[in-house]
Amino acid sequence: MTPALNILVLNHLAERHINTITSVMPGITVHTSDLAQAASFIADTDILVSWGWMDIRELFLAAPKLKWVHALSAGVENLVFPEIQASSVILTNSRGIHGIPVSEHVLALMLTFTRGLNRLIRQQAEKRWKRVPTDELHEKTIGIVGLGSIGREIAKKAKGLGMNVLATKREMTTEIFVDKLYTPDRLIDMLAQSDFVVVALPQTEETREYFRLEHFEAMKRTAYFINIARGTVVREADLITALEQGLIQGAGLDVFEHEPLPENSPLWDMPNVIITPHLAALSPYYLDRAVKLFADNLARFCQGGEMFNVVDKEKGY
């Protein structure tokens, strides 16, 4: 007889999402709840589906049957705590579903800078007709810091636009959309060649303030810095210094050290900075992709197969 499985999802799901999950095998029950009401379901929960930014520690401690925690996000920053690290509970994430919207967001930022759209939008508000300097992405060099699933999708699209693609990666692998790979210890070498530097690193203790003033000093004065990873990956004060001193030409920022970005941040008033409110991964298709990934992994879990996107609870990714 197939054992019953109780799944608690800390997010609203449409009926089609619930059907996708329950169709994996008989005996699956799905409850959806917000974090505040989740305590009434947690005692019988076998699988908890959360977001990486949620504080589920109290729920975890009150969940004697819990076997698996899945993050609807790629980041699991708040899901890695001592009790889960010491347990046999599996932790997985939704790595691999963000590449399409995030890569399109990166392209939008790069094209906005090269075609002068950031300046033109301001001029339109002033009803001012004036041409601005323009450039092309063709044959420019993009340096991608962190070649995971998002980095690869960015590389693919950049190569399609005729760009020269460089990237950093821990292991040297064959990458069909990357012209040259660098190990992290050679980051400075890559930065010196890049017209656009895109950060796509996970948030871990190791990557905290990974980008500092010395890295901006190594970049071209004509280069743009784009961060779609996490705000803590960059020492924000150093980035502000680099922009104020003209060490780089501009920045496209979707993530920040403190969110929402404080009103007194000098970044707001910089004409060479584009600010977006942590939405690079947003898409009307996000939950469809996330639920499909979870359901595929649920089938593996139920069949005792090898699961994908298992997070190393010590490393945090």
Automatic annotation (TrEMBL):
GO MF annotation: an example: NAD binding
InterPro entries: D-isomer_2_OHA_DH_cat_dom (IPR006139), D-isomer_DH_NAD-bd (IPR006140), NAD(P)-bd_dom_sf (IPR036291)
Domain D-isomer specific 2-hydroxyacid dehydrogenase catalytic: start-end pairs: 7-311
Alphabetical UniProt keywords: NAD, Oxidoreductase
Gene3D superfamilies documented for this protein: NAD(P)-binding Rossmann-like Domain
Domain D-isomer specific 2-hydroxyacid dehydrogenase NAD-binding as annotated: residue spans: 107-280
Domain of life: Bacteria
Pfam families attached to this UniProt entry: 2-Hacid_dh, 2-Hacid_dh_C
Membrane-spanning parts: none
PANTHER family cross-referenced by the UniProt entry: 2-HACID_DH_C DOMAIN-CONTAINING PROTEIN (PTHR43333), D-ISOMER SPECIFIC 2-HYDROXYACID DEHYDROGENASE NAD-BINDING DOMAIN-CONTAINING PROTEIN (PTHR43333:SF1)
The family this protein is said to belong to: Belongs to the D-isomer specific 2-hydroxyacid dehydrogenase family.
Full protein name: D-isomer specific 2-hydroxyacid dehydrogenase, NAD-binding
Organism expressing this protein natively: Thermosinus carboxydivorans Nor1
